[in-house]
Automatic annotation (TrEMBL):
Origin species: Williamsia serinedens
Protein name according to UniProt: Condensation domain-containing protein
UniProt cross-references to PANTHER family, sorted A to Z: FATTY ACID SYNTHASE, NONRIBOSOMAL PEPTIDE SYNTHETASE
Ranges where the Condensation domain occurs: 9-435
Database matches in SUPFAM superfamilies: CoA-dependent acyltransferases
């Protein structure tokens, strides 16, 4: 089989191509892993590997190649490329878990040449006889976070169907060339003009980004993020979900509002802009496809201190709805409309990455945990809030750019954020400014 015909990059891919050439000691990656523990039966790696191979060829993303034609970046699909799930056995290491995390970090923090190197790596990392990590890393020019999750579900769903002796039904999905063509169609259509008007109005006099760092910003990308993580206490999670139900909002909106309140409190700023990663996918076929079309959008929240929890959640929900309705207008053009002309700037403020699975992540015969390792470029601060299915634990990861934050700082901010979350739940009718003042006085 020969390589396919070259086709254009999406707007999101072009932005990533440009970012890749701003700094020669950094590559943007998306990486995650499943922590698989045997329960009812041994995990059948060969069966799972077969499903990953089949799904990857269908999605094409792992077989992406990038080149330059007449001075312009292009991409094509080469199904002759070697891609598989490699075996990494660390069971004999003194500390298999530490060795596994070191192996994954060395991979997703490494440098890649997108015109020469494979854009994807997958591995089974054995850390015990009954415990395996399934790891997947892709260069961000080929994979966005949604595509990486699609690859994950493709592997899990194919494995479950095989274990149960069921036929795996392949739903219609777009090829990568069709994803690119759909992006071109959007940029040539009338919907783009509607979205542009929305964002030009929204970012007029956009507040400057808030930072919790005491250091001068470097605007240097680094793969070595400072990361602290907590699995939310079940009692606190129940309270958050209960508050969301009472307010007629999503759990994600409540948590995003609480994070905005924390940034306002800790950063001493009343007007807060968050950055929201969105899928940029509008149709069912595109949503089932691989590729990179994700976007980063501003969530503008003015006068945070004057809000109560209820009114701030309402404001956040309104902003999130607007983002989703106008999610395809490119970050770079929104940034220019906001007066941001530095190509190194990749966010409007701290990033809030909301990953709440529509269906529970479950693997027959095993207990499974989901963990995000890398979500692309980090300018300053990002919180990952994710839940692998309704009823499962919510995980809170706080990432800091290591040129801006130390581990103790990130750990302190994470603890303080969760503490403020408890406080706003205890006092839902109290203004955020009063809550912040009481915390400062303690």
């Amino acid at each position: 089989m020969t390589a396919g015909t070259p086709f254009g990059l999406t707007a999101a891919q072009r932005g990533m191509w440009d970012a890749e050439h701003l700094q020669d000691d950094y590559s943007a990656t998306v990486a995650h892993y499943l922590d698989i523990r045997d329960t009812d039966r041994p995990f059948d790696r060969d069966l799972f590997r077969a499903g990953v191979r089949q799904g990857s060829r269908l999605l094409e993303t792992a077989y992406s190649r990038f080149t330059v034609v007449d001075g312009e970046p292009r991409q094509y699909v080469d199904l002759d490329l070697p891609f598989d799930v490699v075996d990494v056995d660390l069971r004999d290491e003194t500390d298999p878990l530490a060795a596994a995390h070191a192996w994954m970090a060395a991979d997703h923090q490494g440098l890649m040449d997108v015109t020469r190197d494979p854009v994807a790596i997958s591995a089974f990392i054995r850390v015990a006889d009954d415990r395996t990590f399934w790891y997947l890393r892709g260069h961000h020019i080929a994979f966005d976070g949604f595509a990486a999750l699609t690859c994950l579900h493709e592997g899990v769903d194919r494995y479950n169907a095989a274990v149960r002796g069921e036929e795996y039904v392949v739903a219609p999905r777009a090829t990568l060339a069709e994803v690119s063509a759909d992006d071109e169609k959007y940029h040539a259509g009338s919907r783009r003009s509607v979205d542009e008007q929305h964002w030009r109005s929204k970012v007029a006099d956009l507040p400057a980004p808030v930072s919790l760092s005491t250091r001068e910003p470097t605007l240097r990308y680094t793969a070595d993020h400072v990361v602290c993580s907590r699995t939310m206490d079940p009692a606190l999670q129940s309270r958050v979900e209960g508050a969301a139900a009472d307010l007629g909002a999503s759990t994600a909106a409540v948590l995003a509002a609480a994070f905005a309140a924390y940034l306002s409190s800790a950063g001493g700023r009343d007007d807060i802009v968050l950055t929201l990663p969105v899928t940029g996918r509008a149709t069912a076929k595109i949503k089932r496809a691989g590729g990179m079309v994700a976007n980063m959008l501003p969530v503008r929240l003015d006068g945070v201190g004057g809000h109560t929890l209820a009114s701030l959640v309402e404001a956040v929900t309104l902003e999130l709805t607007g983002c989703l309705r106008h999610q395809r207008f490119p970050f770079a053009e929104i940034a220019r409309a906001a007066g941001i002309d530095d190509p190194r700037v990749t966010a409007f403020g701290p990033i809030v990455n909301l990953v709440f699975f529509d269906k529970p992540l479950a693997l027959d015969g095993a207990a499974v945990g989901y963990h995000i390792l890398s979500s692309g470029i980090l300018q300053d601060l990002r919180v990952n809030l994710y839940q692998a299915g309704a009823g499962l634990p919510i995980v809170v990861d706080l990432h800091g750019n290591s040129t801006m934050y130390g581990r103790d700082e990130i750990d302190t901010h994470l603890e303080a954020f969760l503490g403020l979350l408890v406080t706003v739940l205890d006092a839902p009718d109290t203004r955020i400014a009063e809550i912040a003042g009481s915390l400062v006085s303690r």
